[in-house]
Design a protein that fits this description.
Blueprint: E1 5-16, E2 19-31, E3 36-40, H1 47-55, E4 63-71, E5 74-75, H2 81-87, E6 92-95, H3 109-121, H4 125-138, H5 144-147, H6 157-169, E7 175-179, H7 187-203, E8 207-212, H8 215-219, E9 224-229, E10 232-238, H9 239-244, H10 249-256, H11 297-301, E11 307-308, E12 315-316
Parallel strand pairs: 3-8, 3-9, 6-7, 7-8
Antiparallel strand pairs: 1-2, 1-4, 4-5, 9-10, 10-12, 11-12
Helix pairs in contact: 3-4, 4-6
Amino acid sequence: MSPLLKVTNLRTTFTTARGTLPAVDGVNFELGENEIIGIVGESGSGKTVLSRTIMGLNPRSNINITGSVLIDGKEVVGSSESDLRKLWGSTVSMVFQDPMTSLNPMMRIGKQIDETLRVRLGMKKADAKAAAIELLRKVGIPSPEERYEAYPNQLSGGMRQRVVIAMALACSPRLLLADEPTTGLDVTIQAQILNLLDTVRADGQLSIILVTHDLGVVATRTQRIIVMYAGRVVEIGATADVFHSPRMPYTKALIESTPKISNPSHTVLPTIPGRPPDLYSLADGCAFAPRCSYATDRCRNERPELEASVEDGHSFACWNPLEINQNVSLRTSKGQ
């Protein structure tokens, strides 16, 4: 069976006053039907640009995109906006980090969902309203008939995020990209939003890409993990394999710097030394080498490619991979 999403040698480069910025550099991966995969990494690693490139939402000027993004067999790279509109909503949708940037503050919540249903599905006004109320109910918003008439500023952050998810699901897409969907929400609301995504995926044939800097989010919510650094994929594999046996030192450092519920209060977390790389002036070798205690001259002078390890489907880009079973697994609970 063909994958729902196939990304091949994808590169997204911006031209700025400072020069050329390779935000996404040679990314390859596939996503199957009803699968959920996490994309993790520090801020600036290329996660959001990758997700927007997959959607075809990047600006049209001062940018160069090469490679291929096939969604349900349809090419995104190089497609016109009119062709992309045929995919948006019905095949692929996106939940953005800040729901207030996705909602019109001057329009009632219900009307914003109505508009999607009427434009994309051709529903009549009464049918669209009934469907919008049902969507609000499906995503767990209490008193949906009342919330239908509310403005975005009258809802809490968690409620607004649920509305955005309802809008993304309105046309029954097959692929949902969620870019930092829990940022800025308290822990309880985070868990509710993540549980909601689990529920909607279980209810239908929906695949999800969960983009986040929080490894605790993906630890129990995803089937596979992609780790990005400096615009490149440095490790990819089954979630359990990556957490229990990270091979790339950067992955291990990310896991160890994540708060764990088993730690005593006020535990000082390990940090990754140094600063994220300047994408305008990347060295020839591994981008992580200046921050890596395992780095050798080869690491500093020759860039490693993503190579498959002995584990099935677990790949990494490192000249000096860590030994298996490093015992740095992230202990977290699904309801955390």
